[in-house]
Amino acid sequence: MSTVAYEIVDVFTDRPFAGNPLAVVYGADELGTDQMQTLAREFNLAETVFVLPPTAPGATYRARIFTVEAELPFAGHPSVGAAVTSMRRGLFEAGPVVQECGAGLLPVEVTTAGRATLTGGEPRLGDPVAPGPLLEMLGLTASDYAGGDLAAPRPAGCGLDWLFLPVRREALARVRLNTVAAQGLGVTDLSVFAWSGGEAHARVFVPGTSVWEDPATGSAALGLGVWLVASGWLPGDGLSSYRVHQGIEIKRPSLLDCTVTAANGAAASATVAGHVQPIATGRIAVPPFIG
Q: What pLDDT score does 290 carry?
C-alpha cells in the first residue's frame, strides 16, 4: 500500500493540546487534488496543508491548503505550521523563507525555537454592513455592540477576507451562533472580537462547515489589523503591534502576535506570528485516484 508522511502539530500555542491542530503532509508530489481533498476529510481538522516543491521562482516551497470541504488559496495557521514543521524536518534552515500558495509568494521568518512570522498578502477592505442582523444571528443584543459609525462591521483581509464585528468582552461567552440565520445573511467567515489596550479577544466562526468555530485563525488576525487601522483604532501611519487571544471559549487557548504597517490611514501590510508544537507523526494511505 502506498503511503505519505504526515505530522500533527498545534499552531499558535507554546504548549501542546492548545492552539489550532493542523495536519502537515509530505511526499504528496504525485497526488491529485481529489486525493488531497480525501486526505483532508480523513484528518477532519480545520485545515490540512500539503508541502510540495515550489513552482515559482524565488519560492522555498509550495503549500496547498484544504479544509474538509474545499481548497483555500491561503490560510494563516497552515502557513505558520508548515514553515516551522518543514524547518524541523530539515527541508530548510531557520531564517527567512518564501511560501508559494494561491495568494502568491508570502515571506515567512522561521526560528529554531519553533516560531514563525508570516507576512500576509495585499490588504483588502470591504464596505461597512449593518450590525443588527449579525448580532441577532449570534444571539446578542444592541447593548453588546462595541462599534460605531467609523468602526462598523466590514470585511477585511490579507489573502483571505473575514467579516469583523466588534462587541463587548462579556458578550463573547454568550454567543450562540444560528447557522440557518447565517446562511440567510450569506455570512461564511466571521470574526467576533472585543478590543482593549492593543489586545483583542476573538471568536472566529465558519458557519456551515464541519469545523464551525476555529481556535486560532492567522488570516483573521491579519485582517483584524486592516480593520483596526480603517476604523481608527490603530494609528493610520507607521507600525503598530497588537495581540489576539482566541480559542478560550472552546478550551483551545491560542495567542497570535501581530503587526500592521499603515500609511495615510490605510493598512499597507500585516504580519502574524506564533509558536508550533509537535504532537504526532505517522504515515497515511494514499487514496485511490478519483479524477
A: 65
